[in-house]
Amino acid sequence: RESLQSEFPKKRDSVQRWELLKSRMERTRVSGRGARGMGMPVWVPQSPQRVGVTGKVTPCYADWEIMLQYCFPRLDINVSKGVGHLLKSPFSVHPKTGRISVPLDLQRLDQFDPFAVPTISLLCHELDVAGDDREQEDSGETEPKRRARDYKKTSLAPYVRVFEQFVEEMERARKGELLRRSDLQGDF
């Protein structure tokens, strides 16, 4: 632990710290030293499992837990610490900067720029422009239907798509889990 604490500050970014930590954990897993004999779990070499004090093999996600707790980049430490922080909600507005809290597309995470997210003033401007265009077109649709689609004409649209895809994937996973449970119980 002490050697890691002394080496972590020497690393430039979270990727280098993570690689250092992974190599140390793997070395501990392979050698089997460290926790054995101290009443602590020991990792099974080359496996995401551990042998507990009682000898029972249980899944081990320590590396994932460590990654999320210590190595994951933080955009705002108060958001990361607070469970009920406002900016954990998608599409909320930061009170000082006016930036919109947006969901991230994990496939394009390296391209994400937190300073390029839409601001509330930009959205208001985009909606005003969309409103002017709408008045010129006036295709005969009712006002509520037109307003419901106005977000699609703003810089928020790609983030809404990311959020919709996330929700759809959660729905599919939930339906699959319900089907699996009903199959196991014999409910048809």
Automatic annotation (TrEMBL):
Its EC number is 2.7.7.102. It comes from the Eukaryota. InterPro entries: DNA_primase_S. Residues 131-150 are annotated as: Disordered. Coiled coil: none annotated. Pfam families: DNA_primase_S. It catalyses: ssDNA + n NTP = ssDNA/pppN(pN)n-1 hybrid + (n-1) diphosphate. GO terms for molecular function: DNA-directed RNA polymerase activity. One of its GO terms (biological process) is DNA replication, synthesis of primer. Belongs to the eukaryotic-type primase small subunit family. This is DNA primase AEP.
